[in-house]
Amino acid sequence: MSVLFGLVALVGLLCVRDLVLCVGAMQRLVEQAEQPAGADRDPASCLARGGRVHPFRTVTTEGIPLDREQLLDDTAVAFFLPGCTRCRERLPGFLEYARGLPGGRRQALAVVVGAEEAAAAYAARLAPVARVVVEERGGPVSRAFAVIRFPSVLRVARDTSGALVATADDPAPGHAGAPASRAA
């Protein structure tokens, strides 16, 4: 009987170990899905440099309607996902960058993707330096910018025809290829 009890205990321990390994592997896969494909370039948006931003209509957290035509030249647009490790790491750099923009809050747009409860902390940190939009995955602003990974930070401007296009991947400090900080 004691041999049977020992075998059952051993099988139970092996099952617990396998469960822990599976949970760890799933967490790693989720983190990798949120990570960029390369260390030097963050392909967070399908929108290539020079690509047009599609029309969108949304409302900021302050209840102010916002659409593509209201974005100023050289606007920084950032997309964050609560619970994303890289988003947490990159948020301070974006906050620093946005504080230094000459147009202030009107020249920065932050989109927090997720349920309002989960997005509240991000929205509160971003509100002093940017107009903030909270939307679910696949929301109108995310679709307009073709966001596929988080975080995603782009700079946009009007081209000669007046269309809003992407001009840079991630202008925020601390990112490869980012311009020097423009803080005053």
What does this structure look like?
It is a single chain. With 184 residues, the protein is of the alpha/beta class. Helix content is 35%, strand content 20%. The protein contains four helices and seven strands, in the order αβββαβαβαββ. It has helices spanning 2-34, 85-99, 116-126, 140-144, and strands at 57-59, 65-67, 75-80, 108-113, 131-135, 152-158, 164-169. The strands form two sheets. A five-stranded mixed sheet has the order 5-4-3-6-7. Strands 1-2 form a two-stranded antiparallel sheet. A hairpin with a 5-residue loop joins β6 and β7 (164-169). The radius of gyration is 21 Å and the shape is elongated. The relative contact order is 0.20. Residues 35-43 and 175-184 have low confidence and may be disordered.
Cα(first) to Cα(last) distance is 77 Å
SSE order: HEEEHEHEHEE
Q: What kind of sheet is the major sheet?
A: 5 strands, mixed
DSSP strand content: 15-25%
Let me know the number of strands: 7
Structural category is alpha/beta
| CA-based shape | elongated
Low-confidence stretches: 35-43, 175-184
Mean pLDDT across all amino acids: 82
Strand arrangement within the widest β-sheet reads 5-4-3-6-7
Work out the helicity level.
Answer: 25-40%
Radius of gyration: 21 Å
Number of helices: 4
